[in-house]
Amino acid sequence: MQTINTNKPVIYFGTGRRKQSIAQVQVVPGSGKLIINGLPGESYLQFSPNYLRISCSPLNILGLSSEYDIHVKVEGGGLTGQADAIRLGLARALCTINPDNRATLKSEGLLTRDARIKERKKYGLRKARKAPQYSKR
C-alpha cells in the first residue's frame, strides 16, 4: 500500500499574456509575498504603486491578499505589459483554487485577455500607418 505525502503544498498555476509579455504565475498558500523572476515584486516593478496595484488586483478584490504567496516567471515586453500579464495569470490561477471566484473576477473584467498587439509595418510606409512626406514635385 502506498502512502501519500501530504506535507507538499498545493500549487495553483495560471498563464497570462499581454502585448509581447508572457507571465507564468504560481499561487501557493502563504503570507502574501510577491516574487517576480526571483526578485521581490516591489523592486522588480520599480516600486511603482500603479504596477503593484494592477498586478495584485485579483487578490485584493477577493480579499485574499494575505493568504497566498505569488511566484511569477515573466518575460518579454515592458513593465506595463508584464503587470497586465501577471494580473491575468493570477486571476486564472485563483479560478482554479475556487470556481466561485470566477463570477466575481469576470464581472470586474479580470479574466479578459487584452488582444491589442503592435500592428506590423507595411512596405512603402515608415511605420504601420505613417506614410513618407508627400512631395508635390
From TrEMBL:
Keywords: Plastid, Ribonucleoprotein, Ribosomal protein. GO terms for molecular function: RNA binding; structural constituent of ribosome. It holds the Pfam family Ribosomal_S9. GO terms for biological process: translation. It comes from the Eukaryota. InterPro entries: Ribosomal_Su5_D2-typ_SF, Ribosomal_uS9, Ribosomal_uS9_bac/plastid, Ribosomal_uS9_CS, Ribsml_uS5_D2-typ_fold_subgr. The keyword Ribosomal protein applies. The keyword Glycosyltransferase does not apply. PANTHER family: RIBOSOMAL PROTEIN S9 (PTHR21569), SMALL RIBOSOMAL SUBUNIT PROTEIN US9M (PTHR21569:SF1). Belongs to the universal ribosomal protein uS9 family. NCBIfam families: PRK00132.1. HAMAP family: Ribosomal_uS9_B. This is Ribosomal protein S9.
